[in-house]
User: Fold this.
Amino acid sequence: MSPEWLGERVARLAFSHYVALSLLLEARRAVRSLEKANLSDGPLPLEGGHLGRSLVKLLELSEPSLDALETRVCDLLDELELWVRNPRQRPEPTFISFASVIPKLGEDLSGWSARMTSIAFRSFIDEFENLQPAHREVICDAIKHPHKRLTVHIAHKRDAVTDFKTSSDERIVLLHDLRSIDLEEVLQTESEFELLAAELFLLRLHEANATFHCPMFDPEKLHDIKDLEYRLSDQYRKEVLRCVREILPVLSAPEISRIVVSDAPLRRRLRDYLQKGLQLQKEEQRYTPDDLISDTSPEASIVLGALLNRRSQKAVEIIAQFQQSTQPGKDRAADPFYKVGGWVDNNLYGCLFHLFAGLPRRANILYAGFERYCRLASPNLRFFQELCHTALLLAFQRQSADRLEGQLRVDPEKQAIAAKQVSEALFQDILELGSHGARLLEIANRLGRVFEAFNRRRSQSEAEINHFSIDQADQQDLSPVSKELIREAKVWSVLYEEKDTKNKSDYDVSQSDLVLNRIYTPRFNISYRKRKKITLRAGEVDVIFLHSSAQFELLLKTLVEPDDTNRPQTSDKLF
Assistant:
């Protein structure tokens, strides 16, 4: 029904006609559902009611009944489809407006029962951003001029629609004409997303006849507003999350540290990490890596690797503090390694990601666990479902759920493999996102390589870099094409824009951060935690977003100055 095909005026009328017929059909189904519903005040018989003369005449109904309405609307939809496909061979339909015909139906229904006097319809228009501009204006007209029997709601991707123009010069004004609810922002609240994700996970297990122990979880309570208070209670939340955490267990950073010193390949990786630091400090004759690996304080040994690889640190002093820290019975309240805000707090995760990045064939268990799956997926429940589905398939080798015996539990290593597989698949799916998919894929790959290069630095002086900002003072120099690509990346959730909550300086006027979607972090073996960022100039953003591979490689060398003797290698392969 594009203006190019039908003409602008006719396209508007035809679209409103189509919406009217579709909503009439949905309204008929809603009334039938009401009749069959188990209502608290008893049955609500409606089939005997008669439609008003206006609606009967407008739609040319054979009789004033809902059945006649349904039959006629189906016929009109068929006629409309034939005409749209053959506008020059078929007669033009007599158009009706959904903004007037739906309120007429509401007025008629309100007189059928005393319990229906206040009846009103709420129309939900999904994927509003995909409508033609002329069609959006038709919807905005109904929002701008509501009726007591009809309220129109729209849903669209964040940042996808910036102009809410009506068919006149008026525009929809927030608060005056509608209220905006940002579902992504609501779901980005960690506790809310975790509970919703846990309920969805248990619901899918229930539907597959899988066995799990959570007496407080009842699938029937997920669909009624009266059960919200029960579902939001502390006890319910505690029990549901406990159950899911037992199925998708997480290993803490200290537990993973103990695995590092006990697992042969990871221990060799740690030994090499320490050896490079000793060589940098010219202390390899005095100490050996094995002298610096503590089975009782593995976190300190791992972080020590980063400290030794920093030219600003003095090896003798650091190793002395390490030796004191690993003494039995040492009070850690003032320990530079273990105190709150100490070296372990600030560097352990970054060092673990660095160690695992050096073993690309090894499953990175830093991505395993229910909470970490939530961090990777939030606010996208589809991503969360895909992570869980893949993990269950890997863990139980595609067995039917009702054949599984014992406690349902997915090993962290299987979870980590699933995270990598899902991340790779969704990364390649960027290609299909809108008209700029190929460009967005290249941008995501380049940003991932920048963060990957930072992660491969042995010093980890700026640990867990995985997002960036553009200095506000420099944004005016950003090219229009880059601005458009940033908008597209936000629309398709390749990038998220989040408020900068960590900047404490008065002179840096950056107001927001651009975060690569965390679901892509396993592909690059980088941290999913929002810890550190880089601030880019407009020209650097243009190079990443627009320029050639050769220019990007030069920029990468400039951005990530290696503090190692060898240049960090990054995975430059896109496919």
